[in-house]
Design brief:
five-stranded mixed sheet, elongated
């Protein structure tokens, strides 16, 4: 009877004693072994005839001889340093832009390797980056060693074999795993199975590193960089690996967000040729920041768990296509990224499975200390219009929005002065917009909102849309639905208003024009008539020019 030999290491994504962090680490190991398979396709090329078997849910490794030799080779192959002094993972060996390589290097250095016991700096390195056809010099600290490269000895005993049991781990290996009381470390230490500790080494490959901005560019300039690290809960190694390889090739400015929810959404949205799962996607996002400006290390100061629905992913992809992108602004010696704050607000709502316009008023007016959000409302007007047009949930409120737009059209028209230039008239309209937005910002209860809307609609004068659809509109104003929702709708309507572009229709052209046209250019007149583009006037013209019958 032949008994199958048990492999040295066996990992399963479905094991009951794993967390999303463990499964993330396993995925990083799976990605690494996939790349090593291409580089060393034959087991004889690897120490101990190392072999592995990879499925969508399991990983097994087996070898001959001493464990330390094999594990040490595996880690040194997996965790390298490029000739530019950058952290380099063999599992991510797909072409990355240099600016993305530097971003990932600095993010891992500031989060996982934040204590100087876990890395050695070599020198300051300067690289010339080409951004928008302009050369920018970027400086960073290169490394010549980090702890992942030589961790094999910690996984093995003095004889060079894998420790059978548990080993102590710390926060660089498992985020948040910190011993709080040094004197009681024997009782409060955190331990992990040896094979799981090996897998955790590969967690940084799967994480996505986003730079978290404040809601103001002034605040961003004064504060140290904050990182939002997204860790997905994975149930299929192959799908997760494909998504991760694609995500590392996004544009650099897309690594910038203003809330943890947008970081979670970006993880699942910026991929191609991956069909959206009908199931919900789970993701944990950690916030690393300095508690004090002069602190040397960043710590986990917040974390949130998100359940991202397929609909939320589709909605965010629509938002990403239709709203202004994050923009890189170049200075003489550096650059900054300005994030789209309005898109970020929508993303935060979607990540929490709320309507995209939920609590819009509160967010705009409670976080807008320096006026950046108000300015970006105008810049994102076309995006807001696109959202209004495609959102079926807003159908029951569409009459209110159209009546609001009609009122704005009348009010703006009254400010127009034919003696002024186009630019001067636009400034007057902008001032009127700010005046109305300021009035709306002071609506803190039902009564003040009713007063605002009643005054706005009465100031506009005759409103055909309101006259036609007053029955479904009045309940929105007078207490039949929560007044906060009506306030949000009013802000969306104000921000999304666009002047109507008058289109001259052929059927609206006077008969006299066609008579003159045919008299001057007979062929041009017949051209329009033959194509029946002005059917309403054809009969009258044919009475004057019978030959047009042909």
């Amino acid at each position: 009877m032949i008994v199958a030999k048990k492999p040295k290491i066996s990992l399963s994504i479905k094991a009951h004693n794993t967390t999303d962090v463990h499964r993330g680490g396993m995925t990083g190991l799976w990605m690494t072994l996939k790349q090593l398979e291409e580089k060393y396709p034959i087991p004889s090329q690897r120490p101990g005839n190392l072999i592995w078997d990879l499925t969508t849910t399991t990983i097994t490794l087996d070898w001959q001889g001493q464990d330390l030799t094999v594990i040490d080779w595996l880690l040194k192959q997996s965790f390298q340093i490029s000739d530019k002094g950058l952290i380099h993972f063999i599992g991510l060996e797909h072409s990355l832009d240099l600016i993305n390589q530097i971003h990932i290097h600095q993010a891992i250095h500031d989060t996982f390797l934040r204590h100087n016991r876990f890395y050695r700096k070599e020198r300051e390195i300067s690289e010339i980056l080409q951004i928008k056809d302009k050369s920018i010099k970027l400086k960073y600290r290169g490394l010549n060693w980090y702890v992942h490269q030589t961790f094999a000895k910690d996984l093995c005993d003095e004889s060079g074999y894998l420790i059978d049991g548990y080993i102590q781990i710390v926060s660089w290996l498992y985020p948040g795993a910190t011993v709080r009381h040094a004197k009681l470390h024997q009782k409060t230490k955190i331990e992990e199975k040896t094979e799981y500790a090996l897998a955790l080494l590969f967690l940084p490959l799967v994480c996505q590193y986003f730079i978290l901005h404040y809601h103001s560019t002034k605040s961003d300039k004064k504060q140290p960089i904050r990182y939002a690290i997204a860790i997905p809960d994975i149930n299929n190694f192959e799908v997760a690996a494909t998504r991760c390889w694609q995500l590392h090739r996004i544009d650099y400015q897309d690594y910038h967000v203003t809330n943890l929810g947008e970081a979670a959404l970006k993880y699942f949205s910026h991929t191609q040729n991956i069909s959206l799962s009908k199931e919900r996607n789970y993701c944990q996002v950690l916030l690393y920041e300095k508690l004090k400006k002069r602190s040397q290390q960043r710590t986990i100061n917040d974390f949130q768990d998100f359940i991202i629905t397929p609909q939320a992913i589709k909605d965010y992809q629509f938002v990403y296509r239709n709203f202004q992108k994050n923009i890189i602004f170049l200075g003489k010696k550096s650059f900054v990224v300005n994030v789209n704050l309005i898109r970020a607000i929508i993303a935060e709502n979607l990540a929490h499975n709320l309507s995209w316009w939920s609590d819009f008023w509160e967010i705009i007016y409670e976080r807008d200390f320096f006026g950046d959000l108000a300015k970006q409302l105008t810049f994102n007007r076309q995006g807001l219009v696109s959202m209004l047009e495609q959102d079926t949930e807003l159908d029951i409120y569409r009459d209110f929005i159209h009546a609001f737009h009609e009122a704005l059209r009348k009010i703006y028209a009254k400010t127009y002065d034919p003696k002024k230039t186009k630019k001067e008239n636009q400034l007057k309209i902008d001032k009127k917009y700010e005046s109305i937005r300021s009035e709306l910002s002071r609506c803190y209860d039902q009564q003040s909102l009713e007063d605002f809307l009643s005054d706005l609609l009465s100031r506009a004068g005759w409103n055909g849309k309101l006259r036609e659809t007053w029955q479904p509109i009045l309940p929105l104003i007078f207490q039949d639905i929560p007044w906060q929702k009506t306030r949000n709708l009013a802000l969306i309507a104000l921000a999304s208003y666009q002047p109507q572009k008058r289109r001259l229709l052929l059927k609206d052209v006077p008969i006299k024009f066609w008579i003159v046209l045919i008299s001057i250019n007979h062929q041009a007149g017949i051209f329009f008539l033959d194509r029946r583009l002005i059917e309403d006037v054809c009969s009258e013209i044919k009475e004057i020019f019978p030959e047009s019958e042909s």
